[in-house]
Amino acid sequence: MTAAQLPVAVIGAGPVGLAAAAHLAARGIAPLVLEAGNAVGQAVRNWGHVRMFSPWAMNVDRESVRLLRQRGWTMPAGEAPPTGADLVRDYLEPLAAHPVLAPHLHLGQRVIGVGRLDFDRVRSAGRDEAPFQIVARKPDGSTVEHLARAVIDASGTWGSPNPAGAGGMPVAGEAEAQARIRKGIPDVLGAERARYAGQRVLVLGSGHSAINALIDLARLAQAEPATAVTWAIRADSPARALGNGAADALPARGALGQSLSQLVADRRIALATGFKLRRIERQGNAYRAVSGANGDARAIDFDEMVVATGFRPDVSFLSEIRLATHPWLESALALGPLIDPNVHSCGTVRPHGHRELAHPEQGFTVVGMKSYGRAPTFLLATGYEQVRSVADALAGDMAAADRVELVLPETGVCGIPAKVRVKAASAAAAAASCCTPATPQGVCCPPKPELAPTAPCCGA
């Protein structure tokens, strides 16, 4: 088998990974989908209890829908956005079971290394002609090797949450308190209720993951009055986290901020602003979170802590791949300026495709939530358009690959008219012609569920 006859490896069977497989198959390219979990959408399942704030139509991929409709699938009815569990049950599982994709799906294979066959990272001569070598570990500890003509990394960021420290690093005492620290969005009204009922719970973070956790904790406290909830944010004001309320074109997202604002106003949630965690101290059977230093130190005692401070990409298994990443976002280099959360909200991210996602390693692309690195502004619809462009490029249809389209709703945080379709030959062209970058008003995704997740509008 020649390199050109090999499949294209897709790492991750979340919403974007399965969409990549669907687009490849539509172009006559065999996908090879490697999923670390024992089921598709493993990251989404971890926040299955969370309701997304974007409607069904924004959370499905066009090519995937075309496949599903061949087998009688219809979009779930109703106005309510799906939960993560809904997305898995009603969309991802039927898609993975489709006969076009099912034979190419390999569950329980965690990728631990990607490189070029017989080429380390240093060697250049003949490199681009060599197939990719992917090494994956099975649940029993054994490894399996796959060869591919190209690699699409859609592994997301859910498995790499940020530490609790304000500077992006673990703080003193964090490791010792791990048994009392939960990353992401705990299911406090369901499976994890007993853990939080009657406890003093401290929530760190200002994105939608934190907001979802806080609202659920307030509901728990209503039923279990001994439960006390404190929200700590690094900013001096919660305004950005609370968003635009009724002005948000996604009502479910606006409602989150409104609900939290009311809970704070009613003192059902205590708010600590300007809280930059420096250390965690043991206090008998509980713990104390300390912000600042010396005479400026402030402390919050807690029994349980929820850390919802974002995610970062895991590139540990890409040590033999030639990457060009943005210096602070860890996204693809060309993509960084277009998604920088210091400048952009999710609604002001311009259309982009295979060119902006490219790395020096020909044939290797990162898509989905992981493509954004540490930027929290990812939308699932963006990931679907990414893989459409990448699949066209791999099929050799460069005109289609460069014709990037993205449909965005009016978000309330940028001046894009509702349901306007933005087209561009490249993201750079769009950036020069569209709206002025807006100050970000909160994150659009959860910890990536890459459809994924803070109150996820994205998927992994």
Can you describe this structure?
The protein is α/β, with parallel strands linked by helices and 460 residues long. The protein is built from 13 helices and 18 strands. The chain folds into 2 domains: 3-159 and 312-433, 3-Layer(bba) Sandwich (FAD/NAD(P)-binding domain), CATH 3.50.50.60; 178-307, 3-Layer(bba) Sandwich (FAD/NAD(P)-binding domain). The strands form 5 sheets. The chain has a 5-stranded parallel sheet, covered by helices on one side. Helix 6 crosses helix 8. The protein is globular, with a radius of gyration of 22 Å.
Tags for this model:
alpha/beta; FAD/NAD(P)-binding domain; five-stranded parallel β-sheet
Instruction: Please give the CATH architecture of the largest domain.
Output: 3-Layer(bba) Sandwich
Q: Helicity level, as a percent range?
A: 10-25%
Secondary-structure content class: alpha/beta
CATH topology of the largest domain: FAD/NAD(P)-binding domain
Kindly give the count of domains.
2
- Rg, rounded, reads 22 Å
Shape: globular
| pLDDT averaged over residues | 86
User: What's the CATH H-level homologous superfamily of the largest domain?
Assistant: FAD/NAD(P)-binding domain
- CATH class descriptor name of the largest domain: Alpha Beta
The total count of helices amounts to 13
Strand content: 15-25%
